[in-house]
Amino acid sequence: MIKKKAVVLLSGGLDSTTLLAFAIDKGFDCHTISFSYGQRHKTELACAQNIASFYSVTEHKVIEIDLRAFGGSALTSEMDVPKDRSMQEMDKEIPITYVPARNTIFLSFALAYAEVISACDIFIGVNAVDYSGYPDCRPEYIAAYENMANLATKSGVEGETRLKINTPLLKLKKSEIIQLGLDIGVDYSKTFTCYDPNNEGVSCGKCDSCLLRKKGFAELNLTDPISYQV
Q1: Which end of the chain is less crowded, N or C, counting CB atoms within 10 A of the terminal residue's CB?
Q2: Domain presence at residue 23
Q3: Tens of pLDDT along 78-100?
């Protein structure tokens, strides 16, 4: 039986690793794509490569783009990454770790990749429940992009296939994402989530991303298998 092809956006983080394992568990032939986009560190790219190898994906691509040319985010400029924020503070406004148009750019590359390999499915690990705050993680954004994608591609216009953007983590809390991954055998020690690690690649333990990850494991009464500076 020929497996359906899928393009999976893989950052090396907890969510995207769960996403890849989920797609594989559902029987997809997975082609992964990561981005070196001018982010503060490259640790996540090394993790993504290791995870792609671990899961024996059909192909793993790393795309080079330079969003530092625009800045506008603590992840692509010299702004300080927020630390030690409460959940209430995180919920107040779109944080400065939001990278302008990042998911739109990433999905555009994934769309081109999918069309070239005749894949009808793209998987992206956006989440709109256990704190997001990012406008390009909302369900209405994904629906609008999927509609656009089917208007903008040769296969969509000719009616050969219809592209679907899969967001299985969209409505899950972080603890639910972790539990989903554990149920399908994800090894979270291989993942990396931090916005601001040290030079050795050890997670800070204080940025929003680290705090949410810690909270997810704590809600399951589990110990996070990665190391933190604090």
Answers
A1: N
A2: yes
A3: 999 999 999 888 888 888 999 99
Within 10 Å of residue 110's Cβ, how many Cβ atoms? 28
The helix (H) or strand (E) run that includes residue 64 is: strand 59-64
DSSP string, 98-141: --TTHHHHHHHHHHHHHHHTT--EEE----SSSS---GGGSHHH
Residue 70 within any structural domain of the chain: yes
* pLDDT tens profile 214-228: 999 999 999 999 999
User: Which of 76, 51, 78 lies closest to 66 in space, CA to CA?
Assistant: 76
Tokens for 212, please give them: 């949410």
Closest by CA position to 19, among listed 180, 206, 134: 180
The rounded distance, in Å, linking the Cα atoms of 37 and 64 is 6
CA distance 206 to 197: 10
* Total residue length of the chain: 230
Distance of CA 69 to the CA centre of its chain: 22
pTM for the structure as a whole: 0.95
CB neighbour class for 77 (10 Å; exposed up to 12, middle 13-18, buried from 19): middle
Confidence of residue 133 (pLDDT cuts 50, 70, 90): confident
Number of domains in the chain: 1
What is the spatial distance between Cα 181 and Cα 187, in angstroms, rounded to a whole number?
8
Tokens 């030690």 correspond to 84
